[in-house]
UniProtKB/TrEMBL annotation:
<dbReference type="GO" id="GO:0016787">
    <property type="term" value="F:hydrolase activity"/>
</dbReference>
<dbReference type="InterPro" id="IPR001310">
    <property type="entry name" value="Histidine_triad_HIT"/>
</dbReference>
<protein>
    <recommendedName>
        <fullName>Adenosine 5'-monophosphoramidase HNT1</fullName>
    </recommendedName>
</protein>
<comment type="similarity">
    <text>Belongs to the HINT family.</text>
</comment>
<feature type="active site" description="Tele-AMP-histidine intermediate">
    <location>
        <position position="98"/>
    </location>
</feature>
<keyword id="KW-0460">Magnesium</keyword>
<dbReference type="GO" id="GO:0009117">
    <property type="term" value="P:nucleotide metabolic process"/>
</dbReference>
<dbReference type="GO" id="GO:0000166">
    <property type="term" value="F:nucleotide binding"/>
</dbReference>
<dbReference type="InterPro" id="IPR019808">
    <property type="entry name" value="Histidine_triad_CS"/>
</dbReference>
<dbReference type="InterPro" id="IPR011146">
    <property type="entry name" value="HIT-like"/>
</dbReference>
<keyword id="KW-0378">Hydrolase</keyword>
<feature type="domain" description="HIT">
    <location>
        <begin position="5"/>
        <end position="111"/>
    </location>
</feature>
<dbReference type="Pfam" id="PF01230">
    <property type="entry name" value="HIT"/>
</dbReference>
<keyword id="KW-0547">Nucleotide-binding</keyword>
<dbReference type="InterPro" id="IPR036265">
    <property type="entry name" value="HIT-like_sf"/>
</dbReference>
<feature type="short sequence motif" description="Histidine triad motif">
    <location>
        <begin position="96"/>
        <end position="100"/>
    </location>
</feature>
<dbReference type="InterPro" id="IPR039384">
    <property type="entry name" value="HINT"/>
</dbReference>
């Protein structure tokens, strides 16, 4: 996509945003986030454009987690989040699939989240299980 900042970075055509490449493979690129939540916050992106995870061919996702794992080890992060958002409502800012590796060194730095648990209705949960299982 011509206007996608991550596609421009992949093609090496972005003077709009600096890119500190950490890892590059045939199918993926990892670089430091320019608006980090903590030291070592990095992004791993597939080299094919797709806004949501379901838009990316599986073969372009094969080295994403191994790269994220290498980043964890290289940064020395003992606690960290691997995060991937899909759509504006899910907090996706750049409409190109990307995975965050966010070190969590303390309570002030890194990803801060709430986890609004919903009350469970076991009958509804079983029906949902059956619905999803049938589609897999």
């Amino acid at each position: 996509m011509a206007s996608c900042i991550f596609c421009k970075i992949i093609k090496g055509k972005s003077s709009e945003i600096p890119c500190f490449k950490l890892v590059e493979t045939e199918k993926s690129l990892a670089f430091l986030d320019i608006n980090p939540l903590s030291r070592g916050h990095a992004l791993v992106i597939p080299k094919v454009h797709g806004e949501k995870l379901t838009d990316i061919p599986d073969d372009f996702l094969t080295d994403i987690l191994p790269i994220a794992k290498k980043l964890v080890k290289a940064t020395g992060a003992e606690e960290y989040n691997i995060l991937q958002n899909n759509g504006r409502g899910a907090h996706q800012e750049v409409p190109h699939v990307h995975f965050h590796m966010i070190p969590k060194p303390n309570q002030q730095e890194g990803l801060g989240i709430g986890w609004p648990i919903q009350k469970t209705d076991m009958d509804k949960l079983k029906a949902l299980y059956e619905e999803i299982k049938d589609k897999l």
